[in-house]
Specification:
Strand content: 25-35%
Number of helices: 7
Low-confidence stretches: none
Oligomer: single chain
Mean pLDDT: 82
Length: 188
């Protein structure tokens, strides 16, 4: 998808190892969630972070009456850290998809306490948030290029952008198809 999956896998393994190292002070609660369960609601306060150990989670953004699935994440992923470290509110709903999911619930304050004494854990958390921001910025840049290509009526650029967007994720591929339809409508 992005060409850096081996890096992400290594990162996930380091984070999992660090969280296991701090398991005693973090005292995580094991959770099994059924398909369709919403783990976090957009706008709610972030008190708990979840480590997805098995299964898939959809990240759904509400925009007025519309709901857009931004991504689907698989184990091993930390959920809720962006809102926790940003403004204390969840930026999306986190919904279980594709069957049951197994998670570890970690109290945010316990994680902060562990981070006070472990710089490796701090670096990994910063890396996680930074990587999510970097990827989001790349998608935004591609979408803006696609909009500009439609505006300029540049079929070649639209094809380049839609090819890149189509390889990111199904929800972004949907945006890619919409750009192509806009181009076709514009030409008719």
């Amino acid at each position: 998808m992005w060409g850096d999956e081996p890096q992400l896998q290594a990162f996930r393994e380091r984070l999992k190892l660090l969280l296991v190292t701090h398991q005693q002070e973090l005292n995580p609660e094991q959770i099994v969630a059924a398909e369709g369960d919403i783990l976090f609601h957009q706008g709610d306060s972030v008190e708990t972070l979840l480590l997805l150990t098995h299964g898939r989670i959809a990240v759904d953004i509400h925009n007025g009456t519309e709901i857009h699935t931004l991504a689907e994440v698989e184990a091993v992923e930390l959920l809720g850290e962006v809102g926790f470290f940003a403004n204390g509110k969840h930026y999306a709903d986190f919904r279980v998809v594709g069957g049951a999911a197994e998670l570890l619930a970690i109290q945010g304050q316990d994680l902060l306490q562990a981070m006070l004494f472990d710089s490796d854990l701090v670096v990994e958390m910063l890396s996680l948030v930074s990587e999510r921001c970097r990827r989001g910025n790349q998608v935004i840049a591609m979408l803006l290029s696609g909009i500009e290509a439609v505006h300029d009526d540049s079929q070649e650029r639209i094809e380049q952008v839609t090819t890149k967007l189509g390889g990111v994720h199904f929800c972004i591929a949907k945006a890619s198809r919409q750009l192509q339809r806009l181009q076709q409508l514009r030409r008719s």
